[in-house]
Amino acid sequence: HMLYTCILLFSRSVLTVACEQTEVLLFDPVSSRHIKTLVEAHEDCVNNIRFLDNRLFATCSDDTTIALWDLRKLNSKVCSLHGHASWVKNIEYDTHTRLLVTSGFDGNVITWDTNRFTEEGCPHKKFFHTRYLMRMRLTPDCSKMLISTSSGYLLILHDLDLTQSLEVGSYRILRARRAPLSTEGSSAGSRSGGSRHTIDSKTHPHREGLSPRNSLEVLTPEIPGERDRGNCITSLQLHPKGWATLLRCSSNMDDQEWTCVYEFQEGAPPRPPVSPRCSLRLTHYIEEANVGRGYIKELCFSPDGRLICSPYGYGVRLLAFDEHCAELVDCMPVRTALLREIRSIYSHSDVVLTSKFSPTHCQFATGCLSGRVALYQPHF
């Protein structure tokens, strides 16, 4: 099974694998037994999977659709959702509003009201649009949406309200030159990650009359050693407790890659307007192996947030914030620090593209370019 943009996803009882060749594979993660293959889950590559509850899950595809499935009846889809105009790459779910949130290479973020789905689909609306969209994530409490772009920008929607669509009609910000953040008053500014712009209902003409929620912050995260070169944010993940975001970045020349951790700086005193304080600060990073150029490598946090599993050539590295695998908040460095390599595991015969920890067992899985899925658990 080809896994060019493979995604692994654990639920409480099953490991699901999204494959390049229109398939979805299901495994029992405890016994490693193959349960079922959804042979033609979509008409093109399957890109992502998201569980809505213990039985319902959604898949998205390059065929521009999203499909809902029920674990109790896998012979057919619950329904197909149509609304994107290009490849659909991400699925998120807000358990509070029961809104499914998807994003694709058409630049659209769309919300789907699963409270009212039928065999014909469910009501949807465009929530947001931006150019060069790569990845979209919601924080665990759904208070923020983060969007990464192939042009190296990171967009953050604060105080998120998914029921209110945004009308952003100008893309001059996304084309703006990267400018270093002023370090006036604190050295933290130079570590926090580049230029910052905020848009809210008071200052942006396209948001007049709307609620003050969904304020938009546009950042150009600094990458160590990359001050004069652009970069592409290829993978975007969030700390399970919402403390930080985890980025995998590659240079525009595609000759270097980094894994970077940025802490959310909440409740900090505001900086003067001439030197706004970014809501993110680069705390840890590490350079990655430049193997498998052009392929996206999906990394992940462990359920407790103490470990990072990162694809590294034909294997993975387990990374931590310090040698004791401490919590991020307990070992916050004064200056940007290197991630610590705890263990390297090389068990594939091709480039590893994806990794995922189990939320319930001491276990993680990896998938490589040639199609092999591997499960790991420690020996006690």
Structural account:
- It is a single chain.
- Strands 13-14-15-17-16 form a five-stranded antiparallel β-sheet, with no helix packed on it. A five-stranded mixed β-sheet has the order 18-19-20-21-25. Strands 1-2-3-4 form a four-stranded antiparallel β-sheet, with no helix packed on it.
- 1% of the residues lie in helices and 42% in strands.
- A hairpin with a 5-residue loop joins strand 19 and strand 20.
- The chain is mostly beta strands and 380 residues long.
- The chain is built from one helix and 29 strands.
- The chain has one domain: YVTN repeat-like/Quinoprotein amine dehydrogenase (Methylamine Dehydrogenase, Chain H, 7 Propeller), CATH 2.130.10.10.
Relevant terms:
1 helix, disordered N terminus, 380 residues, five-stranded mixed β-sheet, ubl conjugation pathway, 1% helix, repeat, mainly beta, 42% strand, WD40_repeat_dom_sf, Methylamine Dehydrogenase, Chain H, 29 strands, five-stranded antiparallel β-sheet, DDB1- and CUL4-associated factor 10
Task: Provide a brief overview of the structure.
The chain has 380 residues and is mostly beta strands. The chain has one helix at residues 188-192, and strands at residues 7-10, 15-18, 24-28, 33-38, 46-51, 56-61, 65-70, 79-82, 88-94, 99-104, 108-113, 124-129, 133-138, 145-149, 154-158, 196-199, 215-219, 231-238, 244-251, 257-264, 280-288, 300-301, 307-312, 315-320, 337-338, 340-345, 352-357, 364-368, 373-376.
